Amino acid sequence: MPHTVRNLYSEHALDAKQVIVIKIGGSVLGELSAEFYQELVKLIDQGWFPVIVHGGGPAINQMLAKLGITSSFINGLRVTDGVTLEVVQMVLNGKENKEIVKRIQMAGGNAIGLSGIDQHMIEVEPLDPQLGYVGKIKQISCHLFSQLQFQNTIPVISPLGMDQKGQIYNINADTVAQAIATQLNASKLLMVSDIPGIYQTVKGKRKVLHLLTREEIDHLITEQHVLGGMIPKVEAALQCLDHGIDEVYILDGREKGILTKVIDHQLVGTKIYKARGAVG
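That's the Acetylglutamate kinase sequence above. Prediction below.
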């Protein structure tokens, strides 16, 4: 969903060529290998500054089910009342976020767990009254990242934000990753999930589409080849292209050596890019 954010990131700007934002979906968090995190840490030695944004939908679903709380969704977004919000905060900040930090540090790196409410990083407003405490990003402050880059510390960010009155909101993680990538002028946004990319079904067989332009994505959406949870990923990718990000990848994080393959420009997952000469 298109949104406008005010960029509060002005001092000590990062080297745009080095920033790589990696969104890790909740569906794949429990399946990422030690090698994945080792590759992630090696990115720093290769001159990259990785910024991690993560989801946690499946773990949130499990905790809500244990507590006997029923979830409902509108257009793929979780309706978040006060009780559900407490569970979302507990799972995202207390479990998933710290698990990623732990895994990065076990792989030999430095990491710090944050959410969008820390240092007023993400200010939000309500997205839709029907959704309850689900936020739309209003502005982002990224001044903290230059210090973390200098310290070779990987930020791991959970998708929560806060309004001017101090109310916390849940935010779609794909949207957070896109907004942070845009504000940091990242070279790449990687969306790591448990699927190999965007695919078409041809004669009953799935075929991964490795390279897609904006025009081709629009056609796939029209023909209903892009459905369900893939829609916010694709929308985030197109927002990135509109704001100057060169490349967005949709990847299967379980594939051996996946991060190295992307850096080495191998044909993996789905790469979404703006065609030369295209107008955003």
